[in-house]
Amino acid sequence: MRSGVRVAVVGGVFVLVAGGIGYGAYSMLGDGDGGDDEKARSASARVRTGPPSAQETAETSKGFFDAWASGDAAAAALLTDNEASAEPVLASFGGAARIGEVTITPGPAVGTKVPYTVKATVSHGGKSKPLSYASELTVVRGPNSGKALVDWAPTVVHPRLTEGATLRTGESATPAIEAVDRNGTVLTKEKYPSLGPVLETLRQKYGKSSGGSGGIETRIEPADESQPGTTLLTLSPGTPGKVQTTLDAGAQAAAERAVKKYAQASVVAVRPSTGAIRAVANNPVTEFNVALQGKQAPGSTLKIVTAALLLDKGLVTANGAAECPKDAMYQGRSFHNLDNFGLPDGSTFTQSFARSCNTAFIKLIDDTKDDAALAKEARDVFGIGLDWKSGVVTTDGSVPEETGGEAAAQYIGQGTVQMNALNMASVTATAITGTFRQPVIVPQTLDDRRLASAARSLSPSVTQQLKTMMRATAAWGTGAKAMAPVGGDKGAKTGSAEVDGQETSNSWFTGFSDDLAAAAVVQTGGHGGDAAGPVVAEVLRAGG
Q1: Under DSSP, is residue 391 helix (H, G, I), strand (E, B) or coil?
Q2: Residues in CB range of 288: below 8 A, 6 or more apart
Q3: Rounded to 5 degrees, what are φ and ψ at 101?
Q4: How many CA atoms lie within 13 A of 518 on its CB side?
C-alpha cells in the first residue's frame, strides 16, 4: 500500500483514508471490463428515462461522496442536477466552514434515497473539534442527459442548511448571550428545548449590546438576516453577555412538560397586568416557532372577542336572554352547534358562552349593522394585526374584514381568522383587564423600542361581564374539567377548529388564573377541553 494511505472498516464498509480524508469504498456494480465496441454502443444509446436503478443509485452516490470527502467541490457538483448552486456550497464546506478529515458512511439505500452519516473535524485558530451528523440524498435522472444525478438541495451538505444560507467557521459577529428569567435563573435550550429558537433570536438582536465578546463557532447563517442563525459547533465560547427576559423558569418548565404529551402542541403564558410573556413552548421544536408565528383558525376561543363586540354594542348582557337554537342560517350558510345541541328558551348569554353555543352568536350578526365590526373590535380593542415589538419575531393575528357567510364564520373563530397561542393568550389578558398590553419577552427598557397600543379599552362594565362569563366556563361550562385542578380566580374558553377538512378538529383552549393568562393549541386534539385544556391548566398551576 502507498505511503500515507491506510484502510479502516467503518460500519462494515472499507474506508480509505489518505492525507486525513476519508473515502467510503464500494465495489462497482456491473460487468466491469467492457470493450471498445460496448463503449461505442453505450455512447450512441438513447437517453435513459425512468427512475434510476439500484446500480445507478449506488454508483452516483459513491462518486458524489468520494468527491465531496476529498474536497473536490467541482467534481461533486458535476454529479448533481444543479451544478451552479451545488459547487459554492460544497466548496464552503472545506473552505469557509474549515471542515476537514471527512468520512462519509452511507446506510442501505431505500429506493433512490441514500442515508448517510458525516464525521469530520473543524479546525480554526489552533483549535479543533469533531463534528458529526446524519443526512440523506436522493438520486434522480437528469431530464436532458438521462444520467443518474444527485437531486441537489442544501440539506445534502447539512440537514439544517437552507436555500441561500452559508456555512462558516470563525469569530462570531454576535457574542453569545446568557439569557435569564425574571428572577435571574439562567435559561438554556438544553434545559428548556422550546427556547432554542427564542434564544438564537435574542442573541442576534441583543448580543452586540449585551456586553459579551464573540467566540469561535461553526454556524449556519441564513439568507434572511432577520432570521436567527444556527450554531452547529463551538470551538471557543467567548464571553457571553447577559440578557434579561420576562420569562419565568417555573412556568417554562411546566409548559415544556405539558406540550410533550402531544405530537403537535403549542402554549404561551402572559401576565395580563403587564404583557410580560412568562412561557413559550412547542412540540416538536423547530426553527419556526409555531406558538409565536403560527397562523390557524382558533375556533370558539375567538368568541371572547365576539362577546366583547356584542356587549360593547349593547346587543346582549351577561345575564340577559340569548337564543341558542340547534342551528341557524346566515345569508345562505348553515351553522350548527356541536352535536346539534340547543339551549331552552330563556337561557342567558353567559350560558351560551359557557356552553360554546355557535348559533347564539350567529343570530346577532345582523344587529351589529356592520360586517366589519368584528375586525374593528379585534384591532381597536385587542391589538390584533398591529405590529407587535415583543423582542422576537411574532405573527400578530388577523381578522380580515369580510362579508356574508364568511363574516359569520369569523364570529365563531372559523373562516379567515388566523391566530396562534400568543395571540389568544393576549386576547384573554385583554379581556380580563380591559386594556391591551402588547406582549413582550424582553423588557422595553432593553432597547426603548415602541410597543403597539390599541385604540381604546373596554369599559369596566364589559370587562366585568367578560370575566364573569369566562369564570362560568371554568366553573361549570365546557372548560370545567380541565380547569378543576387550577386554583385562584379563574376563567376559560374552549375552542375546536375544523381546518382543511381534517377528520378531527384542532383543540384550542385559553384561560386565566389570577394574574396569569395562557392559551394552547393541540393539532387534531379534538374538543378544546380534552387536549389543549390540560396543557393550559398545567402552565397556570405553575404560576409566574
Answers
A1: coil
A2: 197
A3: 50, 55
A4: 35
- At 30 the pLDDT is 32
Q: How many CB atoms lie within 10 A of CB 2?
A: 6
CA 32 to chain centre: 50
Going by C-alpha positions, the residue among 460, 410, 472, 454 that lies closest to residue 432 is 460
According to DSSP H, which parts of 146-248 are helical? 196-206
Alpha carbon 30 to chain centroid, angstroms: 47
Local structure of 254: helix, strand or coil = helix
pLDDT of residue 26: 33
Query: What CA–CA distance (Å, rounded) separates 482 from 531?
Result: 9
- Alpha-carbon distance of 117 to 356, in angstroms, equals 52
Q: How many whole angstroms separate alpha carbon 538 and alpha carbon 535?
A: 5
- Is residue 294 within 8 A of residue 320, CB to CB? The reply is no
Q: Is the peptide bond before 284 cis (omega within 30 degrees of 0)?
A: yes
- The model's confidence at residue 215, banded by pLDDT at 50, 70 and 90, is confident
Say if CB 353 and CB 472 are below 8 A apart. yes
Q: Alpha-carbon distance 304 to 431, whole Å?
A: 7
C-beta neighbour count of 320 within 10 angstroms = 12
Closest by Cα among 532, 265, 304, 244 to 426: 304
> Sign of the C-alpha dihedral, residues 25, 29, 32, 36?
negative
- C-alpha cell belonging to residue 494: 374552549
Residue 10: strand, helix, or coil: strand
104 DSSP β-pair partners:
118
Q: Which helix (H) or strand (E) holds 104?
A: strand 99-106
Residue 314 CA to chain centroid, in angstroms? 39
**Residue carrying C-alpha cell 464552503:** 92
Q: Helix, strand, or coil here: 191?
A: coil
303/308 Cα distance (integer angstroms): 8
Q: Which among 380, 361, 383, 372 is positioned nearest to 299, based on CA atoms?
A: 361
**Side chain identity at 286, as an amino acid letter?**
T
List the beta strands (DSSP E) in 420-515: 490-497, 506-513
Tell me the residue ranges of DSSP E strands in 181-236.
216-221, 230-236
CB 473 within 8 A of CB 479: yes
Q: Rounded to an integer, what distance in angstroms lies between the CA atom of residue 340 and that of residue 325?
A: 9
One-letter amino acid identity for 522?
V
Phi, then psi, of 182 in degrees rounded to 5: -65, -20
- Grid look-up 356541536 returns 338
* pLDDT of res. 386: 97
Cell triple for 375: 375586525
Predicted pLDDT of residue 327: 87
Per-residue pLDDT, 407: 87
| Total residues found in the chain within this entry | 544
**Which of 440, 528, 38, 18 has its CA nearest to residue 202?**
440
- The string of pLDDT tens digits covering residues 319-347 is 999 999 898 888 778 888 888 888 888 89
To which residue does cell 444527485 refer? 150
* 265 DSSP β-pair partners: 283, 522
∠ CA 398-286-258, nearest 5°, is 85
For the stretch 137-159, pLDDT in tens is: 999 999 889 999 999 999 999 99
Beta strands in 237-316 (DSSP E): 241-244, 265-270, 277-283
